[in-house]
Structures are given as C-alpha cells and as structure tokens.
Amino acid sequence: MLAQERYEQILSILNSEGSVKVSKLTKLFNVSIETIRRDLEYLEKEGHLERVYGGAVLNKVGNNQLKFENREKEFTNEKIEVANIAARYVAEGQSLAMDASTTNLEIAKVLKTKFKKLTILTNSLAIANELLDMDKYTIILTGGVLKNDEFSLVGDITLKYIENFNINTAFISVSGVSLKEGLTDFIFEHLQIQKKFIEISQNVIVLADSSKFDSVSLLKVCNLDEVNMIITDSKIKKNVLEKYLNSGIEIVNQ
C-alpha cells in the first residue's frame, strides 16, 4: 500500500472516530510501528492531526484548512475573475454540479446575473442559499450529514444520491495543481464528492486561482488528463502558464 493510501485511510478513521491508536494502524496496514509513526508525523506537520501518547487525535482545522468563512476572504479578486470566466462556459438551461467551495459560491453570484434558468446540483448550503431568489432555477441539494464548518453536506448518503444524475458541466475547486501529482485538495469529506461529480459530468472544469499552481495538498482528486479545462486568473506567472500549456493542459485565464 502506498503512503498516500495510508494517509487517506488514517484520516477516514480519525474523521469517524476522532482518535486512533498506533497498534491498530500497524495491524490494519501490516506495517511497522516506525512506518506508522512517520505517517503520523507527516500528517501532523500538514496540520490534520495531533499526535498523542500511543496514537493520534483529529485536528479539525489544519494549517492550510481554514474555515469556509475565512477562506471566503482570501484571494477574493482572483475568485471573482475566475467566476466571470467560468460563466462563459455555461449555457441557458444547462445542468451544473458545483462542489462546496468559496470559488463556486462566487460563480453562483455571477450565474444569477446572467442566466434565468439552470439546474444546479450541489452539496453546498451556501450556494443553495445564494440562489434562493432564482425561482426558475432548479436547485438540487445532495442530502447527507451536515459539515457545519463548511456549510456542506457529506457522507455515503450524499455519494449515493449523486449517482442518480447526468450533468452537463461540473465545476470542481481544488487547492493544488501539479504536473506531477495532478489535482489535489485537503478536505477529506469533500474528496469523494468531487470524484463523483467528475464521474457523472460530461464536461469537467477545474477552478484554481493562480496561487494554487505548482502546489500539492494531501488528498488527490484526479489526474490532469481526467478534466477538460482549468480556469485561473490573470495573475498566473507567464512561465508557469507556459509550462502547463506546453504539457497539453488547457488553461484559460482571461
């Protein structure tokens, strides 16, 4: 088993149980105590857990995992720029899947000024609330367990519900874009939802402001060749943009 797979399973256990013992992990993964200790050290440095005697406990807010309302205040101009570009790839009457992100919230604000009729599938209460006054929009909430700090719905119920739909375009927001590691994010509960949205959508557009490039977060969403396009902002460095374009990645930034 790869280290990345162990990281994801450790976080899954912590999210469901709140704590985990080293002895349990060594048996589960059939690896040495030293291997598990290194795994926990890495996850602690990333801000996802706190090591305690004999194991670890969940750190709800990691170093790069600011709460939704705090992230909403970061890179605001860049997100608005991304949102306005994204709206160009929407047509009246289409169906969209939008994950629970602050960038998608900005897109929702733009969509309501440009389109009279859309179908929006989302796990975001913030997006649904933003679009409440659009009486010709069909807003489909995924159902699931409320993740309070993200104003989102998550869990197995959410994943099962998403499987019922065929969507024109998915807007997926990520925290890391890398030629080597692909698209990555940091909220474990949202990861499988992002993957499901990608599965059910004919067209997948990734949203990543310029600060996200050449950055890798803990959890892999997918490879770059699994999406149709990345939308970013005009502040992306020319050499970074050219590097990705020369690798065959379609990026729009204006």
UniProtKB/TrEMBL annotation:
This is DeoR/GlpR family DNA-binding transcription regulator. Pfam families: DeoRC, HTH_DeoR. Transmembrane segments: none annotated. It comes from the Bacteria. It comes from Clostridium malenominatum. PANTHER family: AGA OPERON TRANSCRIPTIONAL REPRESSOR-RELATED, HTH-TYPE TRANSCRIPTIONAL REGULATOR SRLR-RELATED. Residues 3-58 form the HTH deoR-type domain. One of its GO terms (molecular function) is DNA binding.
